[in-house]
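Suppose you are handed only these lines of text.
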Amino acid sequence: PIYFDYAATTPVDPRVVEKMIPYFTLDGIFGNPSSRSHYYGWKAEEAVDIARKQIAQLIGAESREIIFTSGATESVNLAIKGIAQSYHKKGKHIVTSMTEHKSVLDTCQYLENKGFEITRITPQPNGLITFEQISNALRDDTILLSIMHVNNEIGVIQDIKKFGKLCRLHDIIFHVDATQSVGKLHIDLSDLPVDLMSFNGHKLYGPKGIGGLYIRQHRHPKLHITAQMHGGGHEHGMRSGTLPVHQIVGMAEAYRLARETMTTEMIYLKKMRDRLWQGLQQIEGILINGDLEYSIGTLLNISFNNIDGETLIIALKDFALSSGSACTSGTLNPSHVLQALGRNNELAYNSIRFSLGRFTTEEEIEYAIHHIAATVMKLNAMIYLL
Ligand code: PLP
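From them, the structure of the protein bound to pyridoxal-5'-phosphate can be written out as follows.
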């Protein structure tokens, strides 16, 4: 099947795989970077230092501001729980949105059960959150705002710079889930009022099981985050556990490649996405979810009147697509994101997400337009006959 599910995960770029291979075996660099007494440890530590710098470079951060984790879910947990546990005496109020990834929503739910108060903003029908909505939600006892940069289901881009400025003004910590935007949109943390940022390797042609948390160092007062993983005191005591050097090197190579290719790749993918929508919009009863103008150029989320999303996905078995988000598509719940935008249950069910990536070709887009239009027509005709 043709792969249109890059927002769920990406294939690892062969150049990344090649870079990782020497980091497994005795004749390569397999050592523990915490082994400070011998060559094997030093070489591994050196590789981690270089990788950390490459990752920091893509997002305009300093090396020491990056903590390695097992992925964005862990980064989000460390950021939100870590802040809640460090600042609960200052306040117990956290602001987020209804359209966040489950890792944010469930972490906030966990904290709510522990006595924190959570305000969940409902975005506008196009998925965007306004400055006024954030401003109205903040209170004297708010300690944290957590908003995603790019939504994983509909692709809308939030104005994190504006939200961050507001947080600075009120001395509120700002966490951004940038899992879907790192390496796709220009992010320069030296010029962005963001305190914490979560990201991973596998959405950007790197390996799974590796991610990072950016923690701003130049901040007054200094940030304190309570560790969630205890042990050998790795990563300045913030995240214990032996560093997976091969994964880190892989993610760094993926980020280095993104820095080189991001601009041209995004122009190309936006062109492909726009062509896809142009071709599909002729289909009767098709609706777009989100807002193409304010969305990342790799994603298209559509709903159909009358046709069940799951039925459509089965009928479109030549394509690897997602209905709602991958994390919830195993269940029968309609997408929480589309529901939050005011789509009724039927339209939220009847949605499919195309997400394009580095290996998407023009031929695949043309084939998809042709094939999907024909399939929908056939399904519509069957419904008509019933
Ligand atoms: N946040 C967003 C917006 C995502 O799309 C994902 C991936 O599904 C995550 C967080 C979780 O990332 P990971 O798979 O690295 O835990």
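What can we learn from it? The chain has two domains: 2-6+262-385, 14-256. The chain is about 40% helix and 15% strand.
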